[in-house]
Amino acid sequence: MSNMIDPDVLARATAKVREASGDEVIAEMFRRSMAENLPAVAERLPDGTTFVLTGDIPAMWLRDSAAQLRPYTLLCKDDPALQEVLIGVLHRQLEYVVHDPYANAFNREANGAGHTSDETEMSPWVWERKYEIDSLCFPLDLAYKLWRATGRDDVIDARFKPAAEAILELWTVEQDHEGRSPYRFQRHDDRPSDTLVREGRGRETRPTGMSWSAFRPSDDATDLGFNVPGNMFASVVLGYLEEIATEVLGDEALAARAKELKAEIDEGISRFGTVEHPTYGRVYAYEVDGAGAALLMDDANMPSLLSAPLSGYVAADDPTYLATRKLLLSPENPYYYSGTAASGIGSPHTPPRYIWHIALAVQGISSTSAAERQQLLELLRDTTGGTGLMHEGFDVDDPTQFTREWFSWANAMFCELALVHAGIK
């Protein structure tokens, strides 16, 4: 499907990107990505919903399908046709959540495609059942953004409340993973990060107030169970849920449940999710187990600690965030790499010394400095390996060496950085 975004809306946005960046190549990369990215992955279905491929994989990830829409939500106010596509994505996500809130990726129809040999409770609709707390954050975030951007009554339809209740129930259960969780997951391949230890239960944890997650946004298993950036995002969207429950649904009980869980997660992050670092002072940990272990690192996939201002959990000038940011953008973060072509954050999901375009875009969007945003836009422009497109990871010494030639989520994050730099946010 072509022209999912109105040409006039795109032309105005491109002109603002061109003016802000002073760079015709950046402006053209933005225009091309915005024009081509969504039509390449989105399919309008007969039921009015929208199925979104995750780039080069024939399945729809809850996280990726929403993350790919972020720049479009910034421009959809004056584009009714684009609104239809985006609301269709939300409504399909909500149906998937009700079907199986522990699943992270789904099929277009109940065709049984995907990781059918995994030891977990699969269904023909589910492509993969790696439970990630952030996968449930993104539909609530998208619902709120579309409701606020469009003002349309049909954003929050009959699908919303059952999905919200399923999310609340799961997050509450997973506050006590050891005592209450029914979730198990094992995959028998040669990647330890693809499976959970202890016969599919994961490493032992103790309650913190936060909600447990089996996997990270990278689809890699958590080391310590409580993923702090995922819980930060959960806190934010629970605030959104309280607002929607109050203003749209008129459901005081749902609003109260969301408010209470948000307060418990916030307290857990405050008590267990921060540590004192000898160099940087008080910083956020990436993961904790509730028993004293803490992991100081960040991963390129979002939500990350670096992306906390994007999630809405902290302001970009918050002192604890700024201290954490300094740690993350230094060798103290084991996945921060510096080379002759670039420096930035990579992931255990990709080869050593490969950094991610998503992380570079997040670094720019979360910066308080226009000069830093401009520098990172130019770095993204110069590290496509001659393709003019964003990738997953690339070699810090040789950008022609990369993973995933076309990665729609990364293209979307480049576009969001360009829009933020142009004052559209």
UniProtKB/TrEMBL annotation:
Q: Which UniProt keywords apply?
A: Hydrolase
GO process annotations (BP): carbohydrate metabolic process
GO molecular-function terms, A-Z: hydrolase activity
Q: What is the protein name given in its UniProt record?
A: Glycoside hydrolase family 125 protein
Hydrolase among keywords: yes
Record region (Disordered): 182-209
Q: Which domain of life is it from?
A: Bacteria
Q: Note the InterPro entries from the entry.
A: 6-hairpin_glycosidase_sf, 6hp_glycosidase-like_sf, GH125
Keyword Hydrolase present in the record's keywords: the answer is yes
One Pfam family matching this protein? Glyco_hydro_125
Which stretches does UniProt call biased (Basic and acidic residues)? 182-206
SUPFAM superfamilies (alphabetical): Six-hairpin glycosidases
